[in-house]
Amino acid sequence: xxxxxxxxxxxxxxxxxxxxxxxxxxxxxxxxDFIAPLFVKPGKGKKDPISSxxxxxxxxxxxxxxxxxxxxxxxxxxxxxxxxxxxxDATGSRSWAEDGIVQQAVSAIKDRLPEMVVIxxxxxxxxxxxGHCGVIVNGEVDNNxxxxxxxxxxxxxxxxxxxxxxxxxxxDGRVAVIRKALDAEKYFNTGILSYAIKYDSAFxxxxxxxxxxxxxxxxxxxxxMDPANAIEALKEAELDLEEGADIIMVKxxxxxxxxxxxxxxxxxxPLAAYNVSGEYAMVKAAEMNGWIDGKRAxxxxxxxxxxxxADLILTYFAKEAAGHLNP
Length: 327
Ligand code: PBG
Hints:
It is a single chain. By secondary structure, this protein is α/β, with parallel strands linked by helices. It has a single domain, classed as Alpha-Beta Barrel (TIM Barrel). 39% of the residues lie in helices and 17% in strands. It contains twelve helices and twelve strands. α3 packs across α4 (101-112), α4 runs parallel beside α5 and α8 packs across α9 (257-266). The chain starts with a helix and ends in a 5-residue tail after the last helix. The protein binds ligand PBG. Ligand PBG binds next to α7.
């Protein structure tokens, strides 16, 4: 042995065998970290494939409950619901209807699986005929007029039995307004998972097909965040925490791992990250072309989101990844 070899510091010793690697692994992934997004629409016995998201479906309430049961059996504690209403209008009024599609879905899941954590996305874009996340006044999405409608939607989901409402609209002040409305109706235990930091992202493309929620004119740059901004993310996090959010979220996840890491440092509440539709679709498309090992890419994405600092991950991979993890 040369003198030079004897002084080499050898990190590879800790990578030598699977058991050693298991022992020194810094980040672990669990099915308990996952929140599975599900799409629900009117009808019976429906499980319609979403073409841009292979392996994902639009369910009717009955098949949705079955799917939620399978997720629960795999150890996944939570789902977030997105609704495709029977009708759309200018104000998105089907979003707060007592017999609305998400209201029906929440009570059906709670009936069958009372312990499952049910989260409901609060936003108007799936319910408005123009596809924007709020009401239009003088050609613009009006902040304050929208707040009142979001509060109605949130209270309606609380009445149906949701555990958390998850506002994704990016109107200013909505967490405070929703908290106040929930409290006024005595829904003190209904929590708020706020999409505090939501960027104006191309990676939502497949979702907009799945939820039929693309804006019919313009874009969402007037309310969602500029991808170039990081300090603004800290401001958005602070505002939503002050307004009473119980969990805050960064969205999308993979192109914003730096944001997840920075927000983790300032947040005293659990931090979620949304591994969005485009991130899922990219892996699936490359896998279907034989260009990538889809399973490895999926697990690497998920562990990187966790490593960056997220406590919870909203991901379309939840069910598939659960098959590779211990409960
Ligand atoms: C509703 C909403 C969107 C997503 C979640 N809630 C779409 C959007 O803002 O256009 C995107 C989720 C995904 O891409 O997986 N506002």
